[in-house]
Structures are given as structure tokens and as C-alpha cells.
Amino acid sequence: MKVRAAVLNAMGSKPPYARSRPLSIEEIDLDPPGPAEVLVKIAAAGLCHSDLSVINGDRLRPTPMVLGHEAAAIIEQPGPDVEDVKKGDHVALLFVPSCGRCLPCAEGRPTLCEPAAAANFAGTLLSGERRLKRDGKPLHHHLGLSAFAEYAVVSRQSLVKIDPDLPLAEAALFGCAVLTGVGAVVNTAKVPPGATVGVVGMGGVGLAALLGATLAGARRIVAVDMADDKLARARQLGATDMFNAGAATAVQDIRDATSGGLDYVFEMAGSARALELAYRITKRGGMTVTAGLPPPDATMALPPAHMVIEERTVKGSYYGSSVPLRDLPRYIALYRQGRLPVDRLMSERLSFDEINLGFDRLHEGKTVRQVIAF
């Protein structure tokens, strides 16, 4: 079938993207789903820094590629052997499918699924196949989804069925921002009630982590960002203290205000400098969690003696250490109860043709979560 899709033909385009237009809206061919695959109609897709990091070349992926990895959709056609979902079902898409057979999956850590990691790096579906073509030549899939398109073929393991009355624009955010941000707090760090928490980076994932800290019962939540308007939004979502990371005395100011630092600090900005700041505002005996994915060649110096004498923990969190089949329904239920106001993360809705402009806003730090409504 013919579909409109946003194709990234080469990485490394320079902003403003509204002028350089790294994403080309083209009509391409989409093959039918194979075994253990599903054809879905994309309803809404969020613009995330993980997409931007492919556009600017920070995260290497094969091109040409159809981008997009945070989305909600409606089942259009199950593959020949898929019987547990049907046409018309609403689903949230997952950018890490789970094979269910490798060692990490067997250990209950599906976000570390080894075949999924290999497929995502290669630009294929979990099956190893590519269902996208242009002029008869294959196009690569982004993280098994390629959700910046009217339709997509995805692995059955790349989706979770959701209630049809959940607005699809909001449902899209659960598949990336919410699973990553909330999961980092409740799964990776296991923040207990009454703890003190810091979040560095008030984008969509950082604000989701802030919502997670509120949900966990943190008694104090410190928001850190370079943009005052994002700090103002953080206050509205439950932050008790706000600090601008651009201030020369930011680290000392936070340490002074928190009597030496915070129990748990989450780095969600995707830079080594942000991680260094997060580490420095973590208290003795505390935990620093990073989920921001800086460029692969970024490095950071950690003082080993401090790690020992202060009993520090530095921990990575990928996709919120989530078990999506377990976590996503829980988070949706909490949203319905008003305890996880995910809808307040959404900043703008875009048309498909505004996608390059949307990535300009994201690059400039002028937005939280933009969603394309198809």
C-alpha cells in the first residue's frame, strides 16, 4: 500500500530544520505484515530527543530511514498468525519489543532484549525484515516502529492493547516519555515515600520523572533546567524547588538548599554536563540515575574515592527498566485516577507537514512534548 511518511535520507542536517528539511514527507510503499507482525494506522506520534539525535547525527542509525518511535495507533490488519489482537483495537507502541526467549527477557528485563537491540540498531523489525520501500529499494525502520507515517507494520511484540476511550494523542506519550521517566523513578531507583528527589532536564521525559517522584511520595522534588519557562511548568506539576542550571553557583545553591544534596537525582537532559551536575547534587550515600542518552562518545570523570567513601550509586536506566505489559496498564489506570496527569506534558499539536518546524522547537528547547495528530 502507498503511505505518506517522514523519510530521513541522511543524518547531520543543520538547523533551522524548517529550512534544511531533514525529514522529507514522501509517498512510499508499505508491504503487508508477515508472521508475528501487525499493520497499524498511526493516530498520534510524539517528537522526542531520540528522534532528534538521529537527525543531527548524535546517534548513528542506517539511512534512509522513516523516523518516529513514540506513538499510539489502531490495528488495521493482524498478520497471518496473530490472533490476540483484531482490527479496530487501540494500541500504544513500544520501541523495545521483547522476544521472550533471550536471557534478559527470561530474567524479567525485557527492555534489555538482545534480539530487539540488534534489530533496532540494524533498522529492521524484530523478525529482521524491512517492510518499507521506496522505488523498490528498502527503507530502514526506526526502533521497529517508524511512526512518522500514516501506517506502519510493526512486530506484535512492539505494541500493548489499551482501552479505546483513552485519547490517542495522550496514549502516545505512554509508550516513551512515561515508561522512561516514571519507570526510572519507580523501577530503576525504587524511590521510597519521603525521599528527596532531583530531576535534571525538564523535557517530556524529565517531567514524567517528576510526575513519578510525586506519585512515589517524595517529600521534596528539585527541578533543574536551563529554561525558566520549563521550571515554571515543573512547579505546576509538583516541583517544590526550581534552579536554573545556567547559574554559576547552581550546584552549591542546590547543595546548600538541601543540606548537602538529594537522596535520588535523575539526569534526563542527555548530556555529560547534566550528568555531572546530577552527580554533584546527589548526597552522600545517594543514587544518581541517568536515562538521558548523550552522544555515544560523551565521557564523564567520576572520582572513584568518593564512590567508595560516600557509598555512591550511579545507575543507568533504559526505557525505565520497564516491563511494558505490566507497567503501561498501571500507569494508564493512575492517569485515569488523576494521580499521573500525563496530559499536562503535551505542549503543542502539529500537523504532519509541520514536523521539521517541530524539531526546530525541540532543538531550541522551546517545547516539552509536541504530538503529531494524523
Description:
With 374 residues, the protein is α/β, with parallel strands linked by helices. It folds into two domains: 2-165 and 341-373, Quinone Oxidoreductase, Chain A, domain 1, CATH 3.90.180.10; 180-318, 3-Layer(aba) Sandwich (Rossmann fold), CATH 3.40.50.720. It contains twelve helices and 18 strands. Strands 3, 5, 6, 9, 10, 17 and 18 form a seven-stranded mixed beta sheet that branches. A six-stranded parallel beta sheet has the order 13-12-11-14-15-16, sandwiched between helices. Helix 5 (168-189) crosses helix 6 (204-216) and helix 5 (168-189) crosses helix 11 (324-336). 49% of the residues are buried. The model has no long low-confidence stretch (mean pLDDT 97).
Pick out its properties:
alpha/beta, seven-stranded mixed sheet, 2 domains, 374 residues, Rossmann fold, six-stranded parallel sheet, 12 helices, Quinone Oxidoreductase, Chain A, domain 1, 27% strand
> Which residues form runs of ≥5 with pLDDT under 50?
none
If classified by CATH, what would the architecture of the largest domain be? Alpha-Beta Complex
Q: Please give the CATH class of the largest domain.
A: Alpha Beta
How much strand content do the residues show? 25-35%
Give the overall form: globular
